[in-house]
Each structure stands twice: as structure tokens, then as C-alpha cells.
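Regression test case RT-17, inverse folding.

Input:
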């Protein structure tokens, strides 16, 4: 079934399904698989140095003729170098997060690059629209990984934004099946961004231990923690329990920062340490029951969806 709406038109894709640009997960192989199955694959620059990002972009260009994009966390200290790579390699779609997109939007536009920014509240959405972003990702509190401090549920966020912004809305947070897609579209989104489901795919660059942890997790097995230093949602494990207990004890922020360290996500997601690593995942984990190929995931997501709900 071929779907046509604002998001498919914007990115020249078949289905309004975007794969999250996740750290330690979203390499060129995953992005290629998603794009070739009719969605928009994103290379996640958040865990890459500039030279590695260039390598992944070059590989997907050599092996895939479909549109793809790059996710750029704007808080990175080397963001200027990452942006330089994106421009040098002629990437045409960029998703930005964790910063002010207005600082770079004009430059991207001059290079013919479409810009989408991740937002967690109405103020951020209006700001993104005002600096001429082409679309926004509305990320609800259900999303895995780093989250908005407002803790707004996705459904409420979509409704708020749909009434106020004119640019297309891409819904993100806890979506793992066609029913989640249909609900988001019915509330006013034009597309969805899916993370955890693709993180557990065959083509994901994550460690098999992490993928299996997602499969084994139940619907109540994720938690929000580190609210005082940067909200994160992940599967509960000994490290997360330690982090939550430390917050309950009102441990000073500097001690929480020290506890977090700088390699927790890599430790859990890429190295497969299920005890001490951070296993980022959204609230939809309970519906993910096996490690599947991206092709099989797309068959599940688009088969038998009602025509009206995805147009």
C-alpha cells in the first residue's frame, strides 16, 4: 500500500515512517534498510566522530538510492565539524535536537537541506517553525533515551501542536505498531518516528544483549530517571535502580553527574553490559516480542492499515 501525505511528499518516501537517529544503533546499514523499505532512515551522528560520520554517509550513498538523513544533536562540542561533514557529503535531510536550530537553519537552507527539529513542548515547536524548519518531531514522555523535562504524553503534545503550528508534525514516543501510527495520525500528526522497535532489529548496530533486553522487557519495565540533570528513559536494571535511589536521597547534582559518567549508553547499547549500562527504550517495549529484520517490521507496520488513517 502506497501512502501519500505531507511527510511522504517532503521526503519523497513511500510511508510516513522515520527511523530514529539513535546513538550506537543507527548506522548506515539500519538507515539503508529503513529507506529501502519505504521509510526514511537516519544515521545517528550522536555517537560518531566526524570522520566516522563521513564514512557512514559515504557507505549509504554507495549502497542505497533512496532518500536518507542524518540526526545531529546540537549540544555536541564538535557540532560544527559534524555539520561540515553533512554539507561536504551533500546530505539533503537533517534532523536536529538538543539545541537551537535557528543557529544553523539558514545555512542548511542555502545548501538545499531540509531541516526537522525535535521538540518536547509548544514553545520549542513555535521556535522551530519561526526559524523555518520544514517539520518538527513531537517527542512525548513515552520516548526512550533523553526526554523533555515537561514530561508531556505524546497524545497531549500532538493535540497541542496541531492546533498551533502549520508545519508537519512527526510523532515520536512509544510507537511500535500500526495502531500507534494510526492513533498519532488521527490526532494530527503527518508521520511517526520510531526508535526502540528499530533498535531491536537485525540491522541495528546495537549489541545482541541489548536487543534481547528489549524483547524480554515488559510494558512496565522502563523508568524515567536523572530528572535533575537531564531526563532519561531506559529499561530498569541495577544501574537505573541505583540512579533512582540516589535521586530519592537528594544526592547533589555533581554526584549524579559523576554516577552517570560519559560512557553509560555505549556500555549498555553497544557493549551489551546489562548491569551497568544504560539500555535506552520507550514505553512500547512490552509489544516487541522478537528481533526482526527491517523488512519484516515494515510488513507489520503497513499491512492492513486502514487507508484513511495514514493519508
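Golden output:
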Amino acid at each position: 500500500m502506497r501512502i501519500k501525505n505531507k511527510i511522504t511528499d517532503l521526503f519523497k518516501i513511500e510511508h510516513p515512517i522515520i527511523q530514529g537517529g539513535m546513538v550506537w544503533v543507527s548506522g548506515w546499514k539500519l538507515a539503508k534498510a529503513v529507506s529501502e523499505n519505504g521509510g526514511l532512515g537516519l544515521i545517528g551522528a550522536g555517537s560518531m566522530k566526524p570522520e566516522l560520520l563521513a564514512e557512514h554517509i559515504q557507505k549509504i550513498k554507495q549502497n542505497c538510492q533512496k532518500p536518507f538523513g542524518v540526526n545531529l544533536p546540537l549540544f555536541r562540542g564538535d557540532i560544527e565539524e559534524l555539520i561540515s561533514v553533512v554539507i561536504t557529503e551533500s546530505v539533503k535531510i537533517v534532523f536536529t535536537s538538543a539545541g537551537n536550530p535557528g543557529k544553523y537553519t539558514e545555512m542548511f537552507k542555502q545548501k538545499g537541506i531540509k531541516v526537522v527539529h525535535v521538540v518536547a513542548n509548544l514553545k520549542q515547536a513555535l521556535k522551530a517553525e519561526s526559524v523555518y524548519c520544514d517539520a518538527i518531531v513531537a517527542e512525548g514522555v513515552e520516548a526512550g533515551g533523553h526526554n523533555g523535562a515537561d514530561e508531556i504524553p505524546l497524545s497531549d503534545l500532538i493535540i497541542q501542536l496541531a492546533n498551533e503550528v502549520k508545519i508537519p508534525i512527526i510523532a515520536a514516543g512509544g510507537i511500535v505498531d500500526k495502531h500507534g501510527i494510526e492513533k498519532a495520525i488521527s490526532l494530527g500528526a503527518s508521520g511517526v518516528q520510531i526508535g526502540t522497535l528499530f533498535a531491536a532489529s537485525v540491522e541495528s548496530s546495537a549489541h545482541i544483549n541489548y536487543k534481547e533486553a528489549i524483547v524480554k522487557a515488559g510494558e512496565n519495565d522502563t523508568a524515567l530517571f536523572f530528572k535533575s540533570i537531564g531526563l532519561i528513559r531506559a529499561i530498569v536494571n541495577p544501574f537505573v535502580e541505583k540512579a533512582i535511589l540516589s535521586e530519592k536521597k537528594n544526592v547533589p547534582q555533581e554526584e549524579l553527574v559523576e554516577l552517570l559518567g560519559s560512557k553509560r549508553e555505549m556500555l549498555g547499547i553497544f557493549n551489551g553490559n546489562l548491569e551497568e549500562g544504560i539500555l535506552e527504550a520507550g514505553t512500547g517495549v512490552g509489544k516487541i516480542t522478537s528481533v526482526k529484520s527491517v523488512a519484516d517490521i515494515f510488513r507489520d507496520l503497513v499491512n492492513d492499515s486502514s487507508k484513511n488513517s495514514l493519508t
